[in-house]
Amino acid sequence: MKYIIVGMGNFGGYLAMRLTDLGHEVIGVDNIENRIDLVKDKITYSVTMNATDSHAVKNLPLKDCDCVIIAIGEDVGASIMSTAIFKQLNVKRIIARAINDLHETVIRSIGVDEIIHPEEETADRLSKRLQMKGVMDSLEISDEYNIIEVKVPKRYVGMKVSEADIRKEFFLNILTVIKMEEKTNLLGIKTLERRVIGVITPEYQLDEGDLLLLFGKIKNIQEFLNLDD
Prior knowledge:
This protein is an alpha/beta fold. The chain has 2 domains: 2-116, NAD(P)-binding Rossmann-like Domain (Rossmann fold, 3-Layer(aba) Sandwich); 122-225, Alpha-Beta Plaits. The protein is built from 9 helices and 11 strands. The chain has helices spanning 10-21, 33-39, 54-57, 76-88, 101-110, 118-131, 161-164, 166-170, 218-225; strands spanning 2-6, 25-30, 45-48, 67-70, 94-97, 114-116, 135-140, 145-151, 173-184, 190-196, 211-217. Strands 3-2-1-4-5-6 form a 6-stranded parallel sheet, sandwiched between helices. Strands 7-8-11-9-10 form a 5-stranded antiparallel sheet. Helix 4 packs parallel to helix 5. The longest helix is centred in the middle third of the chain and has 14 residues, at 118-131.
């Protein structure tokens, strides 16, 4: 896909680089040249430009773009102005970053429905992870369901998946297992790397240090997490 990301600060710059790494075509836009210099060799294309200038924005390949992301964080006025300009130019899809409730209200009034709050979303995700003992990471699917990454409890070490029967006891599905494997890099330094096993069969044996990726109801996840108490 083709993306235009406006604002090459910490959030916008990182997003641009990640999307590029994933094989997408990304144009990074910012009016501060130093920010462009930091990403220009790591994304598809970068341009120093004032995104509140409608004449300049019209020179971007808007018709070929699948999505415009307004990632401006520190200048609310510039964020609103650039969002309005892209909206007036009828781009296919706009995702805008909101700094506060008032900012979000203004963006919605412009007609943008896809609004993100990176800082709040990150903090919310971390708070939920910290709240659940032993959880390495989590992804909230709804108010009732969650996906978590957790170390295999001691009671299951050495068991086959069919013997552990976590699905029957806790109504949780094992989506996959992640193994932490020691690798030696080019400098001779040993590091741990994650290896995803893939689809887990009933015969897979759970080893100490395995990370389980589990899906299910939050209340059942909580019961599972209390196993080693």
